[in-house]
Design goal:
The structure holds two protein chains of two kinds. Chain A is α/β, with parallel strands linked by helices. Chain A has eight helices and six strands; from the N terminus they run H-E-H-E-E-H-H-H-E-H-E-E-H-H. The longest helix of chain A has 12 residues. Chain B is of the alpha/beta class. The radius of gyration of chain B is 18 Å and the shape is globular. Classes of the chains: A alpha/beta, B alpha/beta. The interface between A and B is large, with 44 and 46 residues.
């Protein structure tokens, strides 16, 4: 089994200048936890995940205020609302991870699992001849343990 | 905004004696990364997440062989199939996380954010007053807060 056999395709991507609100909306509507980020030439320049929105240090909306220690204090509802309002209009390239670990479409399953465990990432973009062709996630690896009928059901959508 | 407005519902739970194959099937079909695990009376006894299946030390199928380093050498497709095959029949309680951080139905958004960031958890079950899981809040669910309130409120109804 190769990366291309287990990956999800096609891949939703966002432009690096896209707002965080749009990115969040795309992720929610498509039920996906990560979006590869592309520049205007369509090249992969980063990745943004649902965790990036909620990390203590660099996530949004917290980094906006540069107060990682913010949560040691009680904050009013208006405070959270304001922070999120300001975070919505910020750009994807401000919170994305730039150094992206990828695998090749022709990589074996063993190599994909190996990369995932070594890097600790939940998702890896799959590349073919320099182009993004899919995403493989930890969730997708669950298919290896599923009944053949379940796999067929999922493949049929 | 309260915990019960952010969470994914219903909380589809698995019994702790169910097989991993059944748990995986539920997770794949519902597209969720975490299931609350319940005991005989429907009370929460743990959670099982996609991480539990793929962690280096604890996860399956790797822990079966107690070889976290198994992937540093080449292994074949047959071996992988065999490892997963043995994992299928094991029970949820063998790999579940027992010490679970939970939230209450009426916890405010501030409390939800604070607890999730402080604990580093990706998933937290939301409990009713009698200790039964009614939903799960994931980091993905927190994205809902990023969308303007009017849209976030309308989205779950799906009426437009």
């Amino acid at each position: 089994m190769l990366a291309k056999d287990i990956m999800i395709k096609p891949v939703h991507t966002v432009d690096e200048n896209c707002s965080l609100e749009t990115a969040a909306q795309t992720m929610l509507l498509s039920h996906i936890g990560c979006l590869p980020v592309t520049n205007r030439l369509g090249q992969l320049v980063g990745i943004v995940t649902d965790s990036d929105f909620n990390e203590k240090e660099r996530g949004v909306p917290f980094s906006v205020y540069r107060h990682p220690q913010w949560f040691e204090q009680w904050v009013s509802k208006e405070g959270v609302g304001k922070m999120y309002a300001e975070a919505r209009v910020r750009k994807v390239n401000e919170i994305m991870s730039s150094a992206v670990s990828t695998v090749l479409a022709t990589d074996t399953l063993e190599r994909v699992v190996d990369r995932m465990l070594k890097t600790g990432h939940r998702r890896l973009p799959v590349m073919s001849e320099g182009t993004l062709v899919g995403i493989v996630s930890r969730h997708d690896l669950l298919k290896l343990m599923a009944k053949p009928q379940t796999r067929e059901l999922l493949a049929a959508g | 905004m309260r915990a019960h407005e952010i969470m994914t519902t219903p909380a589809v739970a698995v019994d702790r004696n169910q097989s991993l194959e059944q748990a995986v099937q539920t997770m794949l079909l519902l597209h969720v990364g975490c299931l609350p695990v319940t005991g005989a009376k429907g009370e929460l006894v743990g959670i099982v997440t996609e991480f539990d299946f793929n962690e280096k030390d604890k996860g399956l199928p790797f822990s079966l062989y107690r070889h976290p380093q198994v992937f540093s050498r080449w292994i074949g497709r047959d071996t992988i199939d065999k490892m997963y095959g043995e994992g299928r029949a094991r029970q949820v309680k063998d790999i579940m996380t027992v010490h679970v951080e939970t939230l209450a139905h009426d916890d405010s958004l501030e409390v939800v954010l604070e607890r999730m960031l402080q604990t580093g958890c990706h998933y937290m079950p939301v409990l009713s007053k009698d200790g039964k899981p009614t939903g799960v809040i994931s980091r993905h669910d927190l994205l809902k807060v990023m969308i303007k309130e009017t849209e976030a409120e309308m989205a779950p109804m799906g009426g437009w």
